[in-house]
């Protein structure tokens, strides 16, 4: 039964290896080797443990009732399986990370279109050596000096310099 549960949770080592930085390849290879060794050990084990021959032990053990007591305790023994308490929180973290990543991708696409528009503006503008002051002020409005508001040179507030 344990072998089947492990098989359901197989690791995609190729996809995992693509995300490993070069300086951590040795640690990744050690992890994969150890995981493969544990997997091989689990697959070599039988699905159910071998049945105990209680009649043989009753004939071999001299003390009467001891084997019956062991058999009773063995059959009453219940080994609890660990409860998965982390999968839900990991799935929530994954969903949050995916949401953040998709928001970042959308923001990046918006920035890319803005940068492409600016690049087109720079490609289509008059070369700087052929521009007049009016052309410069039309192309880059932030360079226009306000001589009415600030009549003295540098025609800008000193705080903006």
TrEMBL record:
Q: Does the keyword Mitochondrion apply?
A: yes
Q: Which UniProt keywords apply?
A: CF(0), Hydrogen ion transport, Ion transport, Membrane, Mitochondrion, Mitochondrion inner membrane, Transport
- Segments crossing the lipid bilayer: none
| Keyword Mitochondrion tagged | yes
Task: Output a single Gene Ontology CC term carried by this record.
Answer: mitochondrial inner membrane
Its GO biological process annotations read:
proton motive force-driven ATP synthesis
Task: Report a single Gene Ontology molecular function.
Answer: proton transmembrane transporter activity
One Pfam family of this chain: Mt_ATP-synt_D
Location, primary (coarse class): mitochondrion
Q: What subcellular locations does the record give?
A: Mitochondrion inner membrane
| Stated family | Belongs to the ATPase d subunit family.
What PANTHER family has UniProt attached to this entry? ATP SYNTHASE SUBUNIT D, MITOCHONDRIAL
Q: What does this protein do?
A: Mitochondrial membrane ATP synthase (F(1)F(0) ATP synthase or Complex V) produces ATP from ADP in the presence of a proton gradient across the membrane which is generated by electron transport complexes of the respiratory chain. F-type ATPases consist of two structural domains, F(1) - containing the extramembraneous catalytic core, and F(0) - containing the membrane proton channel, linked together by a central stalk and a peripheral stalk. During catalysis, ATP synthesis in the catalytic domain of F(1) is coupled via a rotary mechanism of the central stalk subunits to proton translocation.
Output this protein's name: ATP synthase subunit d, mitochondrial
